[in-house]
Amino acid sequence: MYDIAIIGLGPAGATLSRLLDKKYKVIAIDRKNPERGKCCGGLLSPDAQKILAQFDICLPKDILVDPQIFSVKTIDFDNHIEKFYQRFYMNMNRAKFDDFLISLIPGSVEICNDSICVKIEKENDAYRLTFRTNGVERTEKSKIVIGADGANSIVRKTFYKNNKIHKYTAIQEWYEYSVNSPFYSCIFDKEITDSYSWTISKDNYFIIGGAFPIKNSNMRFEMLKEKIRNSGIYFETLIKREGCFVYLNKGFMSTCTGRNGAYLTGEAAGMISPSSLEGISYSMESGKILAGIINKDRGDVGRKYFIKTLGIRIKLIFKIMKMPFMYNKFLRKIIMKSGIKSIKKHLI
Ligand SMILES: Cc1cc2nc3c(=O)[nH]c(=O)nc-3n(C[C@H](O)[C@H](O)[C@H](O)COP(=O)(O)OP(=O)(O)OC[C@H]3O[C@@H](n4cnc5c(N)ncnc54)[C@H](O)[C@@H]3O)c2cc1C
Predict the structure, then answer these.
(1) Which among 83, 182, 234, 245 is placed 20 to 30 Å from 303, CA to CA?
(2) Atom 27, ligand 1: which residue's CA is nearest?
(3) What is the pLDDT of residues 13-49, one digit of tens each?
(4) Closest ligand 1 atom to 117 CA
(5) Phi and psi dihedrals of 176, rounded to 5?
(6) Percent of the chain whose pLDDT exceeds 70
(7) Burial readout 231-258 (b: 16 or more C-beta within 10 A, e: otherwise)
């Protein structure tokens, strides 16, 4: 019998596993394959940098990629406007970042890599988990189960399916570099998606991605590439294609932290910005809060966790309120035309 079973070792699960008291018997199950990292833009936001600073964690430089870019080119295909805005992201290799966070987990946590949790059942006062490692099935019991398993969370689907949250398909393709000067872009086009799309330069690759409604997501992605090509950006040799689900927390009630020994953290809890899809900071923050409450070992964990994550939920409500200004074609036109917060490029 384990005290705590954690499903998923992304930023949320890795932070939680690292911070849990060694008095607990902890198992962490993660299906990530080292060959195939998480489909992600790999941009470390100032909020995420601040959390790393609070943990006194310094990033080894091999996690960063080339180049570091200081502005985002916002392309509004609906209104035919382009503007640049200053950004403070760090451009990094997401797979290496996840591996680094996992490397900080103490040896007292039993890590099951390349393992997929396929079933969780409540059994008296414990949870019975079934997971597969290299095709071999294993069953374990735990007093507490924590879903740090991102969008499409099995813990959320099993225990909290009534807490509805929108699910989109994210697709990214990596191309051999053939763009004159590196840039990030953020693309708005109602015909393609009511979320947004992007391009990122990373090492010797040019990445095109977007978050699309699940229906016709492939067709929408093809349309995106077509429009980018038509705008004069050239890319040809495809290196790899990746995809995953992403939660789009558009409602005030879509976050769910869990109760009675089955808790959710990070994106599984709906803690991801619906406006920018930035989520690493919320995942590390919620993992840290949950570990702190469990370590105190007093009172109702579910209630305390719900209360202590209020700050995150308020931040997300502000992001939801920001959405019309980004996603409504007319409001966006007014803002972009006004030039507020945009920067002028002095091109030679
Ligand atoms: C395309 C895209 C681009 C993004 N770009 C950025 C960005 O640039 N910056 C940013 O801050 N955020 C970005 N995000 C959001 C960010 O990726 C997520 O918010 C963040 O990864 C969530 O962390 P997490 O630990 O909660 O979940 P995840 O990182 O999704 O980790 C979940 C882990 O659980 C494992 N898992 C899932 N199901 C099971 C199972 N049944 N059994 C075992 N293991 C399981 C997965 O393999 C994974 O390792 C992006 C998201 C997408 C989709």
Answers:
(1) 245
(2) 150
(3) 999 999 999 999 999 999 987 667 799 999 999 999 9
(4) 42
(5) -60, 145
(6) 99
(7) eebebeeeeeebbbbbbbbeeeebbbbb
CA of 150 from ligand 1 middle (Å) equals 5
Q: 65 CB less than 6 Å from ligand 1?
A: no
Best residue for ligand 1 mutational test, from 267, 276, 316 (most atoms within 8 Å of Cβ): 267
pTM, 2 dp: 0.97
Per-residue pLDDT tens over the stretch 130-183: 999 989 999 999 999 999 999 999 999 999 999 999 999 999 999 998 777 888
**How does strand 26-29 pair with strand 109-112?**
parallel
Cβ of 41 closer than 6 Å to ligand 1, yes or no, is yes
The pair phi, psi for residue 296, each rounded to 5°, is -70, -25
Q: What is the pLDDT of residue 348?
A: 62
Instruction: Give the pLDDT score at 252.
Output: 76
Query: Distance between CA atoms of 123 and 19, rounded to whole angstroms?
Result: 27
Mode of pairing for the β-strands spanning 126-133 and 115-123: antiparallel
Q: Quote the ligand 1 centre to 149 CA distance (angstroms).
A: 7
| Domains, in order of start, for the chain | 2-338 (3.50.50.60)
Confirm if 28 and 146 have CB atoms less than 8 A apart. Answer: no
User: How far away, in angstroms, is 56 Cα from ligand 1 center?
Assistant: 23
Site to substitute for ligand 1 among 19, 247, 278, 312, most atoms within 8 A of C-beta: 278
pLDDT exceeding 90 applies to what percent of the chain? 91
Distance 22 CA to ligand 1 centre (A): 26
